[in-house]
Amino acid sequence: MEIRFWGTRGSIPAPGPHTLEFGGNTTCVEVLLLNGLRVVIDGGTGLRLLGQHLLEQHDPCRFHLLLTHGHWDHLLGIPFFAPIYRQSTEVIVDGWPPAFQAMTRVFDSHMGDGFFPVAFDHLKARIDYLNNLAHGPLELDGVLIDAIRLNHPQGGLAFRFKEGRHTMVFITDNELGAARGRRIPEFVEFAQGCDLLIHDAQYLPAEIAERRGWGHSTYEEVVALAQQAEVHNLLLTHHDPGRTDVGVEQIVALSREMAAGHSNPHYIDAAREGACFRLP
Predict the structure, then answer these.
(1) pLDDT score recorded for residue 82
(2) Minimal CA–CA distance to 273: which of 222, 232, 237?
């Protein structure tokens, strides 16, 4: 399994000289499976870069698109995904059901009230909607994908990929410290013993009091989850748009300091746009 980050920023794109290290594009993660299948998680602005990359390969573009939820920062790249305007492209959408509806509304509805000049039904790509993961696991040629509900306004789903002996868990836009919603033990069980946990760590502990209910976590909450779940490797993502590279590096340093002396996780870093993480 190969996990490549095309967008790691949260809430809104944040391009500029102070976000070059970790990236300014919003959430988009490509997962290449050993069976040759491609899965893309979320359609943030990083999806535009992935589209350029796929066109350069000159191969037919076929993949599963898993949507965690329907907020704009996770859908903004879809209208600018160049392969979606080609008949050879096939996209199978699954994930949080209202997110697919939100995805279609990004485009024009033929009534002039869309946010994009092209109508969804004018796209040349074949786009099919499964609606499996909200009700149970999705199996892709021997790879099992499970889901769990997020603590996030309007709801959403996190995903767990199991390929042979290796497991990757992707949880973005999730408020671990929320008073209501999923309890910590459920997330611990979902991530238990995984090779790689990728989790939203948008805020510092000093920032969270004024942002409770916004649907995001602090690095302390995420490291604690990783320790309880005995996660091997941890990548922090959904970086705040106001967080510079220096600020993200500080969060990584504080997270590593918190984990020092513990057996898990072995490795902690922040997700970087363009970086690739391989599970053998």
Answers:
(1) 97
(2) 237
